[in-house]
Amino acid sequence: MPRVARIKTNNSTFHVMLHSLCEINLFNNSEDKDVYLALIKKAKTKFNFKVYAFCLMNTHAHLVIDSFGSDISKVMHYINLCYSIYYNNKYHRSGPVFRDRFKSRIVDSYKYLINVCAYIHANPKDLLKSNQGLLEYSYNSLIDYLKGCNRFKVLDSAFLTSLLGLNYPQNRKQYYACINHTIDTHTIKEVELPTYMSESVNNKFIPRIHSPELILNFVSNQLNQPSKYVFTKYASSYTPLRALTCFMLHSFCNMSHLDICAFLGNISRSRVSSLITKGLSLTYDMPIIENFISINSY
Known about the structure:
Blueprint: E1 13-19, H1 30-47, E2 50-56, E3 60-66, H2 72-90, E4 103-107, H3 110-122, H4 142-147, H5 158-164, H6 169-179, H7 212-223, H8 239-252, H9 257-264, H10 269-283, H11 288-296
Helix pairs in contact: 1-2, 7-8, 8-10, 9-10
């Protein structure tokens, strides 16, 4: 039976669900969960999306991802492929780790966003002992919302915090009290939770339909190097220009490695891959992504 096409747009928010094969755990211990969250953090730099909630269980995981202009399929393929390689190497096995493709549902309203996050935050209840509370399960973004932290550096908490007024202690207590009641997945949209949405909430996204020439000129201006040198091979002084251009084309034009090969000309896919990785590392030391977003988000 053919697979049904995934419903998606590049400015949607998604409830993403992942499951392991029946015979294995998706995460066997804290190290596995730490690795998966680290991969999400790396992917955020690569694709520039937002994470509004997460919960990693033993056999499955839930994420709420605002694609922010990126392609959710490419995002999850990158994360899950990297994790599968790690998992199989660590546990000396081969073959798939995840059960089928990841599942996703478009979150089409503020109310649905609030309630799906509440459902995710309540998810560990079945794992906890009777004398434990939800705040004792570490791999749940609930802790970050209620304690005002970002332990794994992957959560974008400002939007949901504004929707629920979680800057105020009484609202945090009310939210925690609400999610301690059973929330059924089939009635997520019908559960009533308080909303204290600020009028200043403005959730932007980054369009990924920019022309390659726009990206090239932007990187050229940022580095103060002529754009023509992006086509120059074997000149180490222009490697940052080539690397950042490849990275930005991949991230902000949704161009594949093959597309970038065609744009640059006379370059292999493996070289493009290494340049993208180099470009990603360069972004850690310079605000090129922030500068691009500031003038190209809507």
